[in-house]
Amino acid sequence: MQKICIIGLGYIGLPTAAVFARAGFDVVGVDINAQVIELLNKGEIIIEENGLPEVVKEAVESGKLRAALVPEAADAFIIAVPTPVHEDHRANVDYVVSAVKQIVPHVKKGDVVIVESTIPPRTIDDVVAPIFKEAGFDPEKDIHLAHCPERVLPGRILIELVENARIVGGLTPEAAEKAADVYRRVVTGDILVTEAVTAEMSKLMENTFRDVNIALANELSKICGALGVDAHKVIELANRHPRVNLHQPGPGVGGHCLAVDPYFIVEKAPEEAQIIKLSRDINNSMPDYVVDQVLRMTGDIEKPTVALFGLTYKGNIDDVRESPAIEIVEKMIENPRFDVRVHDPHVRGEQVKFPLVSFKDAIAGAHLVVVLADHNEFKELDNETLVTRMARPVVFDTKNCTGLSSESGLTVHKIGDLRGL
Ligand code: SAJ
Q: Domain UDP-glucose/GDP-mannose dehydrogenase C-terminal: where (predicted)?
């Protein structure tokens, strides 16, 4: 086992390629984006992820990692392309299907084929295996087909790729073992071998567990808003119980995982998946809830200037996919009541459809600052700067991250603590 071909050089495929190259494999990364290919072959990347630029540069310079527009023969193939959802929330596995079709002509008997992309339960059995069958392979005997879901947290990808336990679900027990061998070369965490469908379902339930728990926290913040209680204090105190772990409320749930994966379960078992569906609805309701609170905070001003801080779906990353902050910004821009200014030090202008301004320009003369992402820059916001430069120094911290409090002329509201509003 020497050569690996990785399809999809995004947030997962690229670090995976770099980690395998670092471990001594010959890695060819494939992507449809010519710019990504050209840059990568120069050792450069466009993704923001801790430590990734250095690892990629070293891997390319050592000759172990290169990029190409089309796949080539290898001992193992790893598919790490996105699985978006259709308008009606059904999974769109088109990219996975086309990646599989792309590699089929290069796969030979005995090769390992791994799908890392998150997929609905039974996709390996019902969608991927039949493509190989049609191409003349016996998917159970000629190749080793497996689903090994990625489980890494953006911001910690390089650490978690190596240290996290890895679920390896094979179409057959032998396929699972062969795929596990690939990961054993780079993973220090446990390798958990199972069937493909169990791996598919486990991955979806990990993210669903988190989504449902965040929905509970968001519901708690609304309840506390209605009853005049500080939800953040409630969470802090309740979590001192040894078996309680309430999550944190926020402006909604974003990213390409939590906001998407639970729907893959709902799609396959709509009657049974009640709490999962309701949790999605609760988390989806948070952007409107935030805008409603902004209206309450600025209702007495004719055309308030509102500075919106942070567009990414969570702090210290540059990923705006499914970000509730983007939804909030768009709703506020559409509303003629507001004069909106948007600032995010981690996001480039071309990533979004509206103008971005500097921190200084955003707060000058503003009547409200709304913090929508927990970037380090916002954790360091200081009372004095806001009080001197804003027209009315009020902050709405939807991530409970700033450490600011109502004192010295500043008023601070939090998503879970709207007392005084
Ligand atoms: N969030 C809250 N409250 C919380 C925790 C998170 O509102 O208490 C929000 C975040 O702000 C963000 C969203 O949830 O908008 C998702 O963020 P996240 O940090 O929980 O997770 P992701 O989407 O970055 O990564 C998740 C991880 N899954 C789990 O933690 C179970 C990661 O390990 C997976 O690999 C990844 O999904 C994936 O690709 O599936």
A: 307-404
